[in-house]
Design a protein that fits this description.
Number of helices: 11
Structural class: alpha+beta
Mean pLDDT: 95
Strand order of the largest sheet: 3-2-8-9-10-11-1-12
Number of strands: 16
Radius of gyration: 22 Å
Number of domains: 2
């Protein structure tokens, strides 16, 4: 069943979630970008804001409508709320008797993520495979994942760099959410996806969405799908003979700076490194985001295995679109287009893949 949430009731929704013990996180304009941060009132949302994106370009503009979600995505995703940029894994402490103890560290809080995009929800499901289903459960990710309340706002304004449809995803969330919302001019058409959400809908006393509301939402999602023109090639990397020796790797390496920005904005990348750091009363093991583009990431036995940009770009793209399929039974790309938007060399992954599978 679908319900209707007026724009004027967003603050009520946030208040209800806060009363249930959640810190609410939502999109807002910060430093000329739309970023996710703590939100307590509807006025913090990016009302009347749109975004323009192309290869190596991102800019916020005024929207033709006064909606809060008339934009595609931003460098900010929900990944840092689950797989933190820096995390303490365990601590070694010495007591007053001089004995040491190893203490695992699992820090989390109850978060309500409001206004996340379907591509980011899809990315989270992929990261579930990495941190929860790959044979060794990460307790930090697991605890944070269980403490989430997920509110997805379906996409009605994909950017020129979006290709989620081609990547096997959709502009509309179909599962794994608590609430899914499609914004229309007067508010949101809402679908519940959990018992927690059903209780919240009852507390907010939401009325059933009218047929007009449903029709408007449906038409918007259809239009959003039709707006996407960027596509992945039909031929897969696995089907390309002698892939690793394809001459195009060298051509793209001459343009790539090897900066790793694509891996930092990607909502599915999970490369990390660990180090031991000294504290006032002992030591702690710290996990931090890393990138396969960094020289030290492949450092083994005194030297990096991947010594140049060509081999690092090759590793990144093949892992994302080939090895990931072998390891997790899915590709590691959800078609959000962030790697295209934020690449300072204006490299378009869809174009590079097309050239790599050419006959």
């Amino acid at each position: 069943m679908q319900y209707f949430l007026p724009h004027t009731s967003i603050t009520d929704l946030l208040i209800k979630l806060h009363a249930q013990g959640y810190r609410c996180i939502g999109p807002q304009v910060q430093d000329s970008c739309i970023m996710y941060d703590t939100i307590t009132e509807a006025k913090q949302l990016p009302w009347g804001t749109a975004d323009q994106q192309s290869a190596g370009f991102y800019q916020l503009t005024e929207s033709n409508s006064q909606r809060a979600f008339n934009w595609a995505n931003s460098p900010s995703s929900i990944k840092p709320f689950l797989f933190k940029q820096q995390d303490t894994v365990w601590r070694v402490q010495r007591n007053t008797e001089g004995k040491i103890s190893f203490q695992p560290v699992v820090e989390y809080e109850s978060l309500a993520l409001f206004g996340i995009r379907p591509c980011d929800l899809a990315a989270m499901i992929i990261q579930d495979k990495v941190f929860l289903e790959s044979g060794a459960v990460d307790p930090r990710y697991e605890a944070r994942r269980k403490a989430l309340f997920l509110i997805v706002v379906n996409c009605n304004a994909p950017s020129a760099n979006c290709f989620c449809i081609s990547a096997g995803q959709d502009v509309e969330a179909k599962a794994h959410f608590d609430l899914a919302m499609t914004e229309i001019d007067s508010g949101f058409v809402v679908t519940g996806g959990s018992e927690k959400a059903a209780k919240l809908i009852q507390e907010l006393k939401l009325e059933s969405a009218s047929e007009t509301h449903k029709s408007q939402a449906h038409n918007q999602l259809t239009q959003a799908r039709n707006l996407q023109s960027k596509k992945l090639p039909e031929k897969k990397l696995a089907q390309q003979e002698d892939l690793l020796n394809h001459p195009h790797w060298q051509e793209v390496a001459q343009r790539c700076f090897g900066c790793g920005t694509c891996t930092q904005v990607c909502p599915t990348c999970f490369c990390h490194k660990q180090s031991v750091q000294t504290t006032s009363d002992g030591y702690e093991q710290v996990r931090e985001w890393d990138s396969c583009f960094s020289e030290k990431h492949s450092y083994v036995n005194g030297a990096p295995l991947r010594k140049d940009v060509k081999s690092r770009y090759q590793q990144w793209l093949c892992h994302k679109m080939l090895y990931w399929e072998q390891q997790f039974s899915c590709e590691g790309c959800v078609g959000c287009g962030r790697c295209i938007t934020w690449c300072p060399a204006q490299i378009d992954v869809t174009e590079e893949l097309s050239k790599l599978v050419e006959k």
